[in-house]
Write a structure and sequence with these properties.
It is a single chain. By secondary structure, this protein is mostly beta strands. The chain has a single domain, classed as OB fold (Dihydrolipoamide Acetyltransferase, E2P), CATH 2.40.50. It has a 6-stranded mixed sheet. The radius of gyration is 19 Å and the shape is globular. The protein starts with a helix and ends in a 5-residue tail after the last strand.
């Protein structure tokens, strides 16, 4: 047992740190509660649902968090569509749990 305790000691350094280049929309930030962008990629269903990636005026390759409230409303979005997402904040659901809800607007790309 003593050997296991030695292996659990916090001996991590910055070189052990896992870094991701994934940029997520920070919908909880009051300054960023509205996102307007063009859908550039839709990744198929993954562990947390499908990923929608957009380009905005400020950022490229920004990933929309895979949340049920967003995935349901974005189910018909396609690459090239212009979207506007507006975080409405925490809402109390029918099951008495709080979740973030969103207004979702989609303008279809007329060139499709």
């Amino acid at each position: 047992m003593e050997n296991n305790k030695q292996q659990i000691v916090d001996d991590f350094s910055e070189t052990d740190k896992v870094i991701s280049d994934l940029k997520l929309w920070d919908y909880k930030n009051p300054d960023k509660k509205v996102l307007i962008g063009i859908v550039i990629e839709i990744e198929p269903e993954g562990t947390y649902g499908r990923s929608v990636i957009v380009d905005t005026i400020e950022e490229t390759n920004l990933t929309i968090p895979s949340l049920t409230a967003l995935n349901t409303k974005l189910r018909d979005v396609r690459v090239g569509d212009k979207i506007k997402l507006e975080c409405l904040g925490l809402i109390r659901g029918k099951n008495k749990r709080d979740y973030y809800d969103f207004n979702v607007f989609i303008k279809e790309n007329s060139n499709q």
